[in-house]
């Protein structure tokens, strides 16, 4: 095992009561955070999650025990961490840029360096163009992005997140969870590890590698559950649902011992390579147009009525519907098509946000897109001939269909800004970095 970044060693926290008694919030907490992992602290209200986070951050001292960071006891604010708060904690008289620069200014960095790093962090969280805005001009989700940028700009060893999504509406919270997961999976996250405090079981399974479960009265560690799921995580898979159900059972039965869930049931290995499922022949523009149309009609529409009004044959409309279902944007039942929450969010979003949503959904639901992107990422020049991928597709489809599948992948990948494609050269390339990042 690598050396832990942060350790809590027999940490206990008590507060004196007015009548002379003592109230113990945490008792004998032993916890280690290692590099390259996301850890969730999961517990009910009153389990001391936020108190433990603040002790680890050095914001309040333990009553007994100690916190170790970088091999040394923590005796004040922990320089190895940065925190994202539930309440945003922005200074209303400062602009977005000034709020993000605040911690760097406290470190005494020169103005030019502060400015460069803050702009890079703002771009990373999708707030380009809002540098001069004040907090009062921002939505709750945008304020939380500022809080995230302010923490990431410090490039901490561990990013602490104290229930960062609980004050947001459902769609905004879901969007931010997905973006943080995507940033983490890209491999260039500005922190070595993440410690997330939450009371949301599904959120912990979606984001974490380990879920530490706290008990109450006083707060103590009941045990941990390892999340044995590959990234990017699909909430619809049986294993995801099984882990959520397992943790829910633990949380609702305080006396139950915390044990690892039963391993995923092994499946028989096929003698031949599993075949790829064909992608529907639909463009990203066609999918987007269909979702926007259905959204304008209340999010649900009768399919025969829709086809008649659009004067489209079933062969023309069906691939677009199939693509929307495949990407998780819609569901079909009883002759009706209905938008999912993420489909409605996509239909209502601005162009940049819609691209981000499309990117997440296509990476989560199209295995061949993952193959293309990962191949480009491991190449030093970030480029590969399209023929390489059509050869892979030829193993699963006839030559003409393989070429059509490739064209669909190119269309979706371009829209999602996952890669560029030069048709005359038959060359795929990772997108050029933004100017602000190119200066690094």
Layout of helices and strands, plus pairs?
Layout: E1 6-16, E2 22-33, E3 38-42, H1 49-56, E4 64-69, E5 72-73, E6 81-84, H2 96-106, H3 111-124, H4 140-152, E7 158-162, H5 170-185, E8 193-198, H6 201-207, E9 210-215, E10 220-226, H7 238-251, H8 284-296, E11 300-302, H9 303-310, H10 314-326, E12 330-333, E13 336-339, H11 341-348, H12 351-365, H13 367-378, E14 383-385, H14 386-394, H15 399-415, E15 420-422, E16 427-429, H16 435-438
Parallel strand pairs: 3-8, 3-9, 6-7, 7-8
Antiparallel strand pairs: 1-2, 1-4, 4-5, 9-10, 11-13, 12-13, 14-16, 15-16
Helix pairs in contact: 2-3, 2-4, 3-4, 6-7, 8-10, 8-11, 11-12, 14-15
- Biggest sheet descriptor: 6 strands, mixed
* Helix residue percentage: 40-55%
What's the pLDDT, averaged over the residues?
A: 83
Question: Do you know the CATH topology of the domain at 6-80 and 192-251?
Answer: Rossmann fold
Strand order, sheet with most strands = 6-7-8-3-9-10
How many strands appear in the DSSP assignment? Answer: 16
> Could you tell me the radius of gyration in angstroms?
24 Å
Q: Based on helices, strands and strand pairing, what is the structural class?
A: alpha/beta
The CATH architecture of the domain at 6-80 and 192-251 can be given as 3-Layer(aba) Sandwich
Q: Provide the CATH superfamily of the domain at 6-80 and 192-251.
A: P-loop containing nucleotide triphosphate hydrolases
Number of helical regions: 16
Task: Please tell me about this protein's structure.
The chain has 440 residues and is of the alpha/beta class. Among the domains are: 135 residues, Rossmann fold; 65 residues, Winged helix-like DNA-binding domain superfamily/Winged helix DNA-binding domain (Arc Repressor Mutant, subunit A, Orthogonal Bundle); 73 residues. It contains 16 helices and 16 strands. The strands form four sheets. It has a six-stranded mixed β-sheet, sandwiched between helices. It has a four-stranded antiparallel β-sheet with strand order 2-1-4-5, with helices on one face. α5 links the parallel β7 and β8. α3 packs across α4. The chain starts with 5 loop residues before the first strand and ends with a helix. The C terminus is likely disordered.
